[in-house]
Amino acid sequence: MKILVTGGSGFIGTRLVGELLRTGHHVTIFDKNDSSKYPELVDIGDVRDKEALIRVAAGQDVIYHLAAEHADNVRPESLYWEVNVNGAKNLVDAAKNAGINKIIFTSSVAVYPLNASEADEDSKPAPFNEYGRSKYAAEQVFEEWASEEKMRCLTTVRPCVIFGEENRGNVYNLLRQIYRKRFIMVGSGRNKKSMGYVGNLVEFLIFALDFSPGPRIFNYADKPDLTTNEIIRIAKDAFGKNGDSEFRIPYGIGLLGGYAFDVLANISGNPFSISSIRIKKFCADTTISTNRLLKTGFKPPYTLKEALEQTIKAEFASQSI
Q1: pLDDT (0 to 100) of residue 71
Q2: Quick one: which of 35, 146, 242, 314 could link to 215 by a disulfide (CB 3.0–4.6 Å)?
Q3: What are the catalytic residues?
């Protein structure tokens, strides 16, 4: 098949493109950035540019829509809506113009509130930040597109935090702090985290190519969930640092520190790695149900423990950081 991947130069997109090529598909990447691995496949563009999307979608069979503004500190916040929502509107117009009937969209578990224990796909969305609100609005854009024609196939995937090789996101930063003995625990660490390995998520995204027409939504996480303490223990075991002492800061004090950094960021105009929303997210129970996904028969290739150990081996074995 001929497949268009928006955001295909990013972390998940790069892994997805590689697997699609390996399984014999023809891939076009549409991204505002070049691809470090597949520059010959890239059509540089912005999802806010409808005409560019219409042009690149012509002749394609399937669209994977991964492009998004997703960082915690995007400024101005209107960019979430310009890229995530208006970008979705432009994409469905491009799909209609090209006669494309299959879209696989990566949304986010940020459509659920914090501490929404085992939220499932039927749980009422209650996003806790502007990113989550924009992703939920984008979901509605795609659902409207899917409802217009019976032959249209929409798969919306709501991934939890995704980690893996070559990612420099929150999980990597946590592992790096542990490796460098700079990690300070905030809170009890008994809160549970749903996490997903990029290799497993990509396998599910490809699995979704075979779904029949109609709309469907899936949470994505690799089970069973781990507590923050368990994640840290796995990392310390892999690094050979499990005998290290651990200093803990009570949640209330840590949150006050996060608010202080928020104030400094507003005054200086420069974001900091510590913020109130990051403290809240780190200490919250962020778990989701994947019962609907399991009913599809999909089986992830790696366990969470294997994935964490594999990521640590790939990212830290030969580094001096």
Answers
A1: 75
A2: 146
A3: 131
**Is residue 56 domain-resident?**
yes
Nearest to 89 by CA among 40, 41, 144, 34: 144
Domain hosting 71: range is: 2-166+194-222+287-292
For residues 3-8, average pLDDT: 98
The residue assigned the tokens 């089970």 is 223
Domains contained in the chain, number: 1
What is the end-to-end Cα distance of the chain in Å, rounded? 42
In a domain, 302, yes or no: no
- List strand residue ranges (DSSP E) for 113-160, in order: 153-159
Burial of 317 (0-12, 13-18, 19+ CB in 10 A): exposed
Residue at 105 is within a domain: yes
In contact, 85 and 138? CB cutoff 8 Å: yes
Got the DSSP string for 246-264? --EE-HHHHHHHHHHHHHH
Q: Which residues contact 251 (CB under 8 A, 6 or more apart)?
A: 186, 187, 188, 279, 283
The answer on pLDDT for 301 being more than 80 is yes
Look up the CATH number of the domain holding residue 8. Answer: 3.40.50.720
Residue 76 banded pLDDT, cuts 50, 70, 90: confident
Task: Yes or no: say if 117 and 123 are a contact pair by the CB < 8 Å rule.
Answer: no
